[in-house]
Amino acid sequence: MLVHEIRAPVRLSAQCGTVQSHDRGHKNYILVHKIRAPVIHSKLLVEANVLPWSASLWAFTLSYITYKISRLGKPPFPVPDMRFVHAGLAISHTSTSYDSAIANTFLIEELLDTSSSGFVKFINNSSAQPVEAAMSAHLDICMFLTFTQHLQYWKSGEAIFLPDLQGTTSVLTDPQIITNPSFAVRDVELFGDGNVPQAFENFPLEHHCNRFCTWFEVPSFKAQGTSAS
């Protein structure tokens, strides 16, 4: 069993094994059962690769929103302030030598504060439609997130967008990336198994524009001349 001292609350991926939290003398500790490394390491490398790409695409999305507000002024409705979770890989080795083998790999994320909103699945990765329960409780956020998908799809030249949007009302976690199936390479796992080709193909058909799309001047699929028309 490994014992790690941490300076801030974190969450470890469930793939890493059993996790228990402890408070020893007002210091946060997490106890993690050892696991076999090779399979978990390769899986977590793929998952961890999704995080910075998602954050980069999200940063682009926010920069577009900021630009449009500078040109158009603030919209007559609130724009949710959201970001992606901070995360990274922690890798331990069998020894301190240069050629030592990997012993364990952990995907570590900041611990989300779910005290006010709970954990919410806003949109999954198989449909462009928000989850019904989320629509009932968080309509504005659901509309905002579907708009961000439309914006990403449009600005990337119909190449990419972020699905599986979940977390709290301010921090999103565990993202997926969906790309145009034409980018597929045989025997190469591009952004993991959450990259569902059918979801990409259905996006223009399932997405419904809302006031965010209109205000921020994202052209409708009919105006773009896609198959959704």
UniProtKB/TrEMBL annotation:
Statement: the UniProt record of this protein carries the keyword Kinase: yes
Ranges for domain Alpha-type protein kinase: 1-221
One GO molecular-function entry: protein serine/threonine kinase activity
Keywords (A to Z) from UniProt: Kinase, Serine/threonine-protein kinase, Transferase
Superkingdom in the source lineage: Eukaryota
Any Pfam family matching the protein: Alpha_kinase
Protein name per Swiss-Prot or TrEMBL: Alpha-type protein kinase domain-containing protein
